[in-house]
Amino acid sequence: MSKSNKFYITTSIPYLNAGPHMGHTMEYLQADILARYNRLDGREVFFLTGSDEHGSKIAQVAEARGVWPQELVNENAAIFQDLLVRLGISNDAFIRTTDDKHVKFALEMWQKLVDAGDIYKANYEGLYCVGCEKFLTEKELVDGNCPIHHKPPIKVMEENYFFRLSKYGQTIREKISSDEIKVIPESRKNEILSFLEEDLTDISFSRSREAVKWCIEIPGEPDQLMYVWCDALTNYMSGVDREKFWPADIHLIGKDILRFHAVYWIGMLLSAKLTLPKVIMVHGFITSDGQKMSKSLGNVKDPFEYLEKYGRDALRYFLLREIPTLGDGDFSAERFEIVYGDELANTFGNLVSRVLAMNKKYFDGRVPERGGDDGFEVMVGQAWVNLEKRFAEYDLKKALEEILALGYAANKYVEDSKPWALAKEDQTKLATVIYNLLELIRQIGLMLLPFIPDTASKVLKSFDGDFVADGYLWAGQRDFGLLKSGTEITAAEILFPRLETAK
Ligand SMILES: [Zn+2]
After folding, report:
1. 3, 199, 279, 445 — which has fewest CB within 10 A?
2. Catalytic residue among 155, 273, 295, 424
């Protein structure tokens, strides 16, 4: 395998002091669609996700529950892993920061930074928010409180190890402004470049055992534990065959952790003289029915509930379709049902069942003779080009809309050509129309594979009983008109039941 044909994508690793929410769900899905797309396109893909399992907050939650922190993180990691399975996420590995191989690599990274002369001891006096698990600057405080937790931070004074981040500010700025490291979207790139206009300060890379309690130990320093940066961020290298897949082609992250990835992580890699990631792709946040999702407002959308009620493909489709890939979006229960009904049940589901039923009725379930293409060959070819363009722009929502447009065109073709009337007057034209509709459905099924793999596989199984999505490649499958006359097509089961019955 040449390195240019590999694709390595990571998600951020959720902190395991609490369970998963819709934001994690969307990030998993976005990464999954990119991973599946690249596999179908013939690249060797490694898709890594995992969990961040150290720190004082985990120690506190565990203590309050009277369990050992490892027990707490084992329980919570299992919940995240269960969500991944239920969502049909195709991750190749799940790295936990308490895994031995992770701890070993984090210590190797630490040593590389020491060898580079970039780790030094100094007194730290700072304002620390336990909730955030980080030091805050005076500027960040609102009325003396942490802006997120609305509590005053604690004054902390201790001797820690520091990382000489200040040394790398200029280089990081150059790498980002030249797109050697591409920060997507442009607005996030500008945000980070403007942050980098000011000189960087060095950052605390260790904390006292008393302060963080549950972290990787610094060798020969019983009182100093590794602070989050060198621990959590190194998962992107500890969890993968580095020879084969590093550097990451995409680090997919939320907008709240951009600075840690675009500045701290890059500074560490520069210091350790390691190759830099190619793309940092930043998604936004999800609100719920127009408001911030919160327990106190009672508007939390639980991914497990949606999976249970509507099935995984409906949730996959909705999140990708409704939330702008690189911006903030709203999750509305009402919109969910509208999108489910209009697009999944009617535009896609109904099209498939109607066309296969007509093929059964008029041609005994066999593909009729191919006639003229009625302009679809060009249209479908263009849809593939557009799809690729949208993926190249990292715009998964727009990619899905390209497929939806083809669905609309197919439905309109049914209405305009009226196969039920042709059946009485023009068998040749009927054959042409049904052939084109079958081929359109097959093409839509191919295109939907990364997005809603279960449904797309059902559709493609109608055309080929042996179809399996695993290891399937698009190459050689996507020219319009490849469907052979005479092939038997089996009827598909109902893809998206109407909601009255789904409830
Ligand atoms: Zn806070």
Report:
1. 199
2. 295
